[in-house]
């Protein structure tokens, strides 16, 4: 009898939890919510040397250091989207996406790297792509820079040379002028954290310069903020009135969670060192205090005469502060943090003073940095709501990596669980998320992982001269979600090979 009572109680509690959850949150998208998909020039275009296109840092890296790419391959052809843009636009339309986020290749538009020569062919490609999208009723969302700056600019220090700020603004101005009648949502720069760290503090991204102790990384970030701020001001001065668009930056945000409940302060530090590094200057006028204090402390410990974190003048603060029309975030995964115990012995190894790890219960993906933890997404969205006065948020990337299977049930589960978290954050917690983009419409060149990690909802056969595209299970799932504007049940796989993720067991 006692057992029966316990069982009934458990079932009742489960039902109540379920009902109260679903009462509050129906898994429909709010009206007006924008659903899109995303890509980046170097990852999909190919046509690396057609017409007068200049060489960029990814052409240079993959051609000269193939040893740094897992399969030694490159983006010379990639998805061939330079030639197949109409097919891409038609697929995006058929599936029912509202917008397509693509990026412009700087050296395709400016072959010399500078604004003295504008490639007519290069610009025409982006005009054609934009027109194809508009004709299909798809909103173009344009990333001005997604990691592929001209090699000639890198030869002068790239993002560590402050002069890049004006070179970038001149490039952005050409795009505003050429595409701004159709493009109303601009992203200045994609994920500073990723290329500043991977490119100037390591070798996982171009230009693969390992500059010690994050000196290059911080300088890169400093110039990124200046370039972003000045580009925003340029849009204000010359284009906003006539074009009426929005300009923002996109940050790569992992959810940094406390390893256990005594490490809340450490999770906060990790947040400020990643999100806050870029967002605090843009929303609150300067680098986060904890970052300034910690980098100064560790710099001193290392014998530097001044902090490795550069400082902004009042003039720059005024330019950068308040330059996001919306908050763009790319989210994939979570990390756990706890203090570096070495510091108790007076040994300072990391600027943030933290050990970063993952929970062993989180399912692995094909990418070594990426474990599945849906609840981290909701945590992050609420954190942004609280930290930056509930800004308009656009999730400009979210997606899952495997090795390319067509029956990608794990990808569908990932989308279901992550989107559910997002809808709860919107509907229950009032987070102001207005748009969401699937990364990615196609399998593509995954940077240092080459073609070994696949994020597409569409399979691309890179070994085939035609780069044939084939729908994955996740593509048909997305088509249904888009037509119903509601999350759809995760299809069950009868194949014996399916691996169950923890939350599906
Ligand atoms: C995004 O970055 C990119 O914008 C996109 O181009 C890319 O294809 C997509 O995600 C999938 O990766 O190897 O430990 O140094 C995602 C954020 C930031 C995740 C850099 C990997 C390197 C971690 N990425 N990070 S590590």
Automatic annotation (TrEMBL):
Which SUPFAM superfamilies does this UniProt record tie to the protein?
(Trans)glycosidases
Query: What keywords sit in the KW lines?
Result: Glycosidase, Hydrolase, Signal
EC number of the protein:
3.2.1.21, 3.2.1.46
- Does the record carry Glycoprotein as a key word? no
| Signal peptide start-end | 1-21
What is the gene called? Answer: LOC107219505
- What is catalyzed by this enzyme? a beta-D-galactosyl-(1<->1')-N-acylsphing-4-enine + H2O = an N-acylsphing-4-enine + D-galactose; beta-D-galactosyl-(1<->1')-N-octadecanoylsphing-4-enine + H2O = N-octadecanoylsphing-4-enine + D-galactose; beta-D-galactosyl-(1<->1)-sphing-4-enine + H2O = sphing-4-enine + D-galactose; beta-D-glucosyl-(1<->1)-sphing-4-enine + H2O = sphing-4-enine + D-glucose
Q: Which organism is it from?
A: Neodiprion lecontei (Redheaded pine sawfly)
Pfam families tied to this protein: Glyco_hydro_1
Give the protein family: Belongs to the glycosyl hydrolase 1 family. Klotho subfamily.
Give the molecular function GO annotations: beta-glucosidase activity; galactosylceramidase activity
Which protein are we looking at?
Answer: Cytosolic beta-glucosidase
Q: Which Gene3D superfamilies match?
A: Glycosidases
Please name the GO terms of the biological process aspect recorded for this protein, alphabetically.
carbohydrate catabolic process
């Amino acid at each position: 009898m006692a057992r029966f009572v316990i069982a009934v109680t458990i079932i009742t509690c489960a039902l109540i939890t379920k009902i109260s959850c679903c009462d509050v949150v129906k898994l429909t998208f709010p009206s007006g919510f924008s659903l899109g998909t995303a890509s980046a020039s170097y990852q999909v275009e190919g046509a690396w040397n057609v017409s007068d296109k200049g060489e960029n840092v990814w052409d240079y890296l993959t051609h000269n250091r193939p040893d740094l790419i897992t399969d030694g391959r490159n983006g010379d052809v990639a998805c061939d989207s330079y030639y197949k843009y109409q097919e891409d636009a038609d697929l995006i339309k058929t599936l029912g996406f509202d917008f397509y986020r693509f990026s412009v290749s700087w050296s395709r538009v400016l072959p010399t790297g500078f604004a003295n020569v504008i490639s007519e062919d290069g610009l025409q490609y982006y005009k054609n792509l934009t027109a194809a999208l508009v004709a299909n009723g798809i909103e173009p969302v344009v990333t001005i820079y997604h990691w592929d700056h001209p090699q000639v600019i890198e030869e002068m220090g790239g993002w560590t040379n402050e002069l890049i700020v004006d070179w970038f603004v001149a490039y952005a101005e050409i795009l505003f002028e050429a595409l701004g009648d159709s493009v109303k949502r601009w992203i200045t720069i994609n994920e500073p954290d990723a290329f500043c760290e991977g490119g100037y503090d390591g070798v996982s991204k171009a230009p693969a310069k390992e500059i010690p102790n994050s000196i290059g990384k911080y300088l890169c970030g400093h110039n990124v903020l200046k370039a972003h701020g000045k580009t925003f001001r340029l849009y204000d001065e010359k284009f906003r009135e006539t074009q009426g668009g929005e300009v923002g930056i996109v940050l790569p945000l992992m959810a940094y969670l406390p390893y256990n409940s005594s490490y809340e302060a450490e999770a906060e530090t990790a947040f400020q060192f990643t999100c806050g590094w870029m967002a605090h200057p843009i929303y609150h006028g300067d680098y986060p205090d904890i970052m300034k204090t910690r980098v100064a402390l560790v710099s001193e410990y290392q014998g530097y005469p001044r902090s490795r974190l550069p400082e902004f003048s009042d003039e720059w603060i005024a330019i950068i502060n308040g330059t996001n029309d919306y908050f763009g975030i790319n989210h994939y995964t979570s990390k756990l943090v706890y203090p570096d115990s070495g510091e108790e012995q007076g040994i300072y190894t990391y600027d943030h003073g933290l050990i970063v790890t993952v929970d062993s219960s989180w399912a692995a993906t094909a990418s070594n940095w990426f474990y599945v933890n849906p609840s981290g997404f909701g945590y992050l969205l609420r954190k942004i709501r609280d930290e930056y006065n509930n800004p308009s948020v656009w999730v400009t990337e979210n997606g899952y990596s495997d090795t390319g299977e067509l029956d990608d049930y794990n990808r569908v589960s990932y989308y279901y669980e992550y989107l559910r978290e997002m809808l709860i954050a919107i509907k229950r917690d009032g987070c102001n998320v207005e748009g969401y983009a699937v990364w990615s419409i196609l399998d593509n060149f995954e940077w240092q992982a080459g073609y070994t990690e696949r994020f597409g909802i569409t399979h691309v056969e890179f070994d085939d001269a035609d780069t044939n595209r084939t729908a994955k299970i996740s593509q048909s799932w997305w088509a249904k979600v888009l037509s119903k504007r509601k999350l759809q049940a995760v299809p069950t796989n009868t194949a014996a090979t399916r691996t169950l993720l923890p939350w599906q067991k």
